[in-house]
Design brief:
71 residues, mainly alpha, elongated, REF
Length: 71
């Protein structure tokens, strides 16, 4: 999954700065939570992954179609 993300990020063209900014915000918000659950059961990490996926889907619904067609 990370390979696909890295590829999409590198080929995001004019949206790359926005992607980098969002990535920084997510890391800032998720970092402390990750450090708390590090070493915990895999299920907790899977739950967090689903929550992040849900957030990305919600964010995607707010991106104008004209921007989506550019990538």
């Amino acid at each position: 999954l990370s390979v696909i993300y890295d590829y999409a990020k590198e080929n995001s063209g004019p949206l790359k700065q926005g992607v980098d900014a969002m990535e920084g915000i997510v890391k800032l918000m998720v970092g402390p939570v990750y450090r708390k659950i590090e070493g915990k059961p895999f299920e907790v990490l899977r739950l967090a992954d689903r929550k992040v996926d849900d957030a990305i889907v919600k964010l995607d619904s707010h991106v104008p179609p004209s921007l989506k067609s550019r990538t």
